[in-house]
Design a protein that fits this description.
This protein has 616 residues and is an alpha/beta fold. It is 37% helix and 18% strand. Keywords: Hydrolase, Thiamine pyrophosphate.
């Protein structure tokens, strides 16, 4: 006879989560490092009570904003190479919909995130409940249906026993390298409190390890044949190299074959910046060394990348008419993009088998030598723009140089939207795998501070440096207080250019007038003069404002010695960006305008469009 235990649905959920394990560096640890929770009427009585009883094995963390706590969970998973993750719960209504942006972020970036929003009553007796969204034509809809398009798996739990198959599917998605992404289980609030006789076997401990799929022999053979014929081969390293922890295999493969490597935003730090074959960033935010090779390459091995437009220069970068792409990826959707020869496999396994099959192949010496020469040329150009300066308003690049000198290549640096991703991608000199943490798949402003907290929770012994602009800081800064409360110290460098400098430059670049981006160009009665250092202090951080690059480096040296989150503010020039490197990006310019600048930009745009390769 099957042994059972009577629990509420919420109790069964939390007990199950606490029994899921994984192996990290040979040690068995919980898959779920904890649950972020902001309680409301839709989850406090059911799930809140259940979390209380497992608080020792499944810690609950309180935050200040639902989107931010989901960002922290996402950053934790990313910094953990997707081996571990966190769950996030909110009440029904605005608490839930606040997390939709984070769900989209995790979906785009293929990162595991378990979302547990409260939902309406399954029995519908008290309808409409507080915060219920009512559809005039569909009685089954709630606000949580917003999660459907941004979840890898979505389920609404309307009976307590439904949690059994739902959690089985949840774990399969969250731990699958190919399917990985957000899971949303909408928990009807009455069902959270309903009891059921669950089989004890449902709560048995289980150890989950990443699936390492090996290449199909025919796919491998086709890729090997293409590479053996290559005169100008190039590797693009994406985030899949990081998640597979395949940096050593990548290094061995390219060193044996003499193939240069370039890196996406997600793949940066796959190889250390000092590696002679690492040409660093590719694409719109790329280095001259990488982009010059990409334009000429005849065989491009794309490892663990989804080949988004910033990587490919909106598919105008790769200009060799005879080029062949090889897509090494766990997900067939990504492996077959743009008629690529697919190798559907784990990055580490795929690189190992490619290396064995190509042991007698070596790229032409002049191609490899040309690549190394281009890297040296780029390094000289980068040193010029990142060097010390006495300018009253330094550039982002000069701030990056100062942070690099003060914190070193081994620090974990984190950033997201705005102008910083472009400068960081090509200028930051990454050290260890995973030390470069960019959210540039969804380009989500407000990710940075909460993300820095999540990264610090995953890497408590690392110096975590958050680079953020004033616009993004104003969007979402509340988790400074959470970092102080939890004792997780992060270092925040706030670049104040008084508005949205990146988009202002894009506006100007497409012929537009300066309008509604920099604070001085917005409609206002009073031009704000925000004291960011004072604001950060009010949230519990140590903070100071510096007036020069030299002062910034000194402040960061002090920050390393501080015992809690530190914010250093510096004013920067909103109009300066690094001209070296980079490539065109397809941002549509109006065909008709009263502004001559827009018409000029349109003609340039149409000329660049001719470089795009559709379907090849």
């Amino acid at each position: 006879m099957t042994k059972t235990i009577r629990l509420t649905m919420a109790q069964a959920l939390t007990r199950f989560l606490s029994r899921q394990m994984t192996m990290v560096d040979g040690k068995k640890v919980p898959v779920f490092a904890g649950v972020w929770a902001i309680f409301g009427h839709g989850n406090v009585a059911g799930l809140g009570e259940a979390l209380y009883h497992v608080r020792e094995e499944l810690p609950t963390y309180r935050a200040h904003n639902e989107q931010a706590m989901a960002h922290a969970a996402i950053a934790f998973a990313k910094a953990s190479f997707r081996q571990r993750m966190m769950a996030v719960t909110s009440s029904v209504g605005p608490g839930a919909t606040n997390m939709v942006t984070a769900a989209a972020l995790a979906h785009v970036n293929r990162l595991p995130l378990l979302l547990l929003p409260g939902d309406v009553f399954a029995n519908r007796v008290p309808d409409p409940v507080l915060q219920q969204v009512e559809s005039f034509g569909d009685g089954t809809v709630s606000a949580n249906d917003c999660f459907r398009p941004v979840s890898r798996y979505f389920d609404r739990i309307t009976r307590p026993e439904q949690i059994i198959p739902a959690l089985a599917r949840t774990m399969a998605v969250l731990t699958d390298p190919a399917e990985c992404g957000p899971v949303t289980l909408a928990l009807c609030q009455d069902v959270q409190a309903e009891a059921y006789d669950y089989p004890e076997s449902f709560f048995e401990e289980r150890v989950w390890t990443p699936r390492r799929q090996r290449p199909d022999r025919d796919e491998l053979a086709a890729a090997v044949a293409a590479l053996k014929s290559a005169k100008k081969p190039l590797v693009i390293a994406g985030g899949g190299v990081i998640y597979s922890q395949a940096s050593n295999e990548l290094a061995s493969f390219v060193e044996a074959a003499g193939i240069p490597v370039c890196e996406t935003q997600g793949g940066k730090s796959s190889l250390p910046d000092v590696h002679p074959l690492n040409m660093a960033a590719v694409g719109v935010t790329g280095t001259s060394a990488a982009n010059r090779l990409a334009q000429e390459a005849d065989v491009i091995l794309a490892v663990g990348t989804r080949l988004q437009d910033f990587t490919t220069g909106s598919w105008a970068l790769f200009q060799n008419a005879e080029k062949t792409f090889i897509g090494l990826n766990v997900q067939p959707f990504d492996a077959t993009k743009h008629r690529a020869l697919p190798i559907v496999a784990d990055a580490r396994e795929g690189l190992e088998e490619l290396a064995a099959a190509l042991k007698d192949y070596r790229a032409p010496i002049d191609w490899t030598g040309n690549a190394k020469g281009g890297k040296e040329e780029w390094q000289r150009a980068a040193a010029k723009v990142t060097g010390p300066t006495n300018a009253s308003l330094p550039s982002d690049a000069q701030v990056i140089g100062a942070v690099q000198r003060a914190m070193g290549a081994q620090a974990t640096v984190l950033h997201a939207a705005g102008g910083l991703p472009g400068e960081m991608h090509k200028l930051w000199q990454a050290g260890a795998p995973g030390s470069y943490h960019a959210e540039y798949g969804f380009s989500c402003m407000g990710y940075e501070i909460a993300g820095g907290l999540g990264a610090k929770m995953a890497k408590p012994n690392d110096e975590v440096v958050v680079m953020i602009g004033d616009g993004s800081y104003l969007m979402l800064n509340s988790e400074i207080a959470t970092s102080v409360m939890l004792g997780h110290k992060i270092n925040i460098v706030l670049l104040d250019n008084r508005g949205y400098g990146c988009i202002n430059r894009l506006q100007m670049g497409t012929g537009g007038a300066n309008f509604n981006n920099l604070l001085k160009d917005t409609k206002h009665e009073v031009l704000p003069d925000i004291d960011f250092a004072a604001h950060a202090r009010s949230l519990g951080a140590i903070s100071e404002k510096v007036a020069s690059i030299a002062e910034l480096e000194s402040a960061l040296a002090r920050a390393k010695q501080n015992d809690r989150t530190t914010v250093v503010v510096i004013d920067t020039d909103p109009l300066i960006s690094t001209e070296d490197g980079g490539f065109w990006w397809d941002v549509a310019v109006p065909e008709v305008s009263a502004r001559s600048q827009v018409n000029d930009a349109r003609r340039n745009y149409e000329a660049k469009q001719k470089l795009q390769r559709v379907g090849d």
